[in-house]
Amino acid sequence: MGSISRKTVWVTGASSGIGRKLAEELSRHSCNLIISSRKEEELHAVKKGCSNPQSIFVLPLDLKNHDGMKELVQQAHEAFGPIDILINNAGVSQRSLINQTDFSVYKDLMDINYLGTVALSKAILPYFIENKSGHFVTVTSLMGKFGSPYRSGYCAAKHALHGFFDVMRMEHEKDGVKVTMVCPGFVQTNVARNALTADGAPQMEDDIATQNGLLPEVAAKKIIKAIEKEKFEAYVGRGEIKGIYLKRFFPKLLHKVVLKSQVR
Predict the structure, then answer these.
(1) The one catalytic residue among 114, 154, 235, 245
(2) pLDDT tens sequence across 244-257
(3) Domain containing 99 — which CATH number?
(4) Catalytic annotation on 245?
């Protein structure tokens, strides 16, 4: 793709964290932006703080509203015309043990992180095919490549995204559609505070690993570079990225390392 400058980009989960920093950075690249999340008021604050607010369209989005995605995609296209890139960044994490977690929590994690992302992506896919151009950038997690305690449902949803979008890339390469999977490790966001606990309530507290993670603006810049290079997969983090290679070549060693880390 080359430079991302002046592209039309739709960013979900843009009201905070990585999504907010992506919006700010993309605005500095003179992109036309559609920014989405459930929190409309915070989206307007993001728009106001960007370099080119006149080129930003606020479009509230609830990933659990699967049936409403076609209408949202139509509204997004009415803002600036054809969309070049959809950054699927919205989602929610989890912090609870399997034997203590209500089944409803697993359903919510799949409805939001997996099915919501799939529903939105399927709704925009016909436009990408018609234009013979389009780029899905799906922000999953290192947890989409290997697992860690307290995150069973989150890991499952993120693994599912990799399976779906790997096939999306294969089936629609002929249509000019590209797919980049972005796998962040620890980033200084509210992901841990907002994570669902055993009964579905948010955890409401941070953890040391997240506090010591990458700055979200650093993560955003790395993600934009991966988009410009049209990478199949990009790993964003510090030492935790080594887990990708341990999983591939030394899975039993990774098992021991993760348990010893006692990361919550």
Answers:
(1) 154
(2) 999 999 999 999 99
(3) 3.40.50.720
(4) no
